[in-house]
Design brief:
Length: 191
């Protein structure tokens, strides 16, 4: 019962610091995954486990609160990281295409000061307003949530289960949410 009434400083942790760590881990994971997407030109389920590991590791490194909060923060941050990874991938594709367009204009002898020479903003504007690209992004994102997001979530659940196994999370004895001991009310504590 003492575990519930007087949790140690380590058990309490901070959801905010854990959130910051999970976001940082997710950003790192998303950038790495996005670069791998560009190199491989496809998604990879192992990257999802990596994202989940980095999100959970960031949460733990920044001393996030133990318990269900690791699940909530971890799952949300993992899914955000998958979206960011897909965005990194598409930015990379647009940058590659822009480099090819610039090369073509340079080979044609068109001056950079010419009014028809494309700018990076022109390239992004073209792709971000292209329905085909937007539809492709949405479809790829759905696939990534399934094949990368689910493994990331599995990793986060693994962090939670590991915390329970190590006794860092109070274990409840029955499905009612009670610890098996009678609840302590304010009336019972009055002397």
């Amino acid at each position: 019962m003492d575990q519930y009434n007087n949790p140690s400083e380590e058990q309490q942790g901070s959801i905010l610091s854990g959130l910051i760590g999970a976001l940082l881990g997710g950003i790192i994971g998303a950038i790495v995954a996005g670069i791998f997407y560009l190199i491989l030109n496809e998604t990879n389920t192992l990257l999802g486990f990596g994202i989940g590991f980095l999100v959970g590791g960031g949460y733990k490194l920044f001393k996030g609160r133990k318990g269900v909060s690791v699940l909530v923060v971890g799952i949300v941050c993992s899914l955000l990281a998958v979206v960011l990874a897909e965005a990194v991938f598409y930015v990379g594709l647009i940058e590659k295409d822009y480099a090819e367009v610039v090369k073509t204009y340079d080979e044609a002898g068109i001056s950079k000061s010419s009014a028809i020479y494309p700018t990076r903003a022109d390239c992004y504007d073209f792709y971000l307003n292209d329905e085909e690209v937007i539809t492709s992004f949405k479809k790829d994102l759905g696939t990534d949530v399934l094949f990368v997001g689910v493994p990331a979530i599995i990793s986060i659940v693994g962090f939670y289960i590991d915390s329970k196994r190590k006794g860092e999370v109070p274990v409840q004895d029955d499905s009612t949410g009670n610890s098996g001991e009678p609840p302590v009310s304010g009336i019972d504590n009055m002397a």
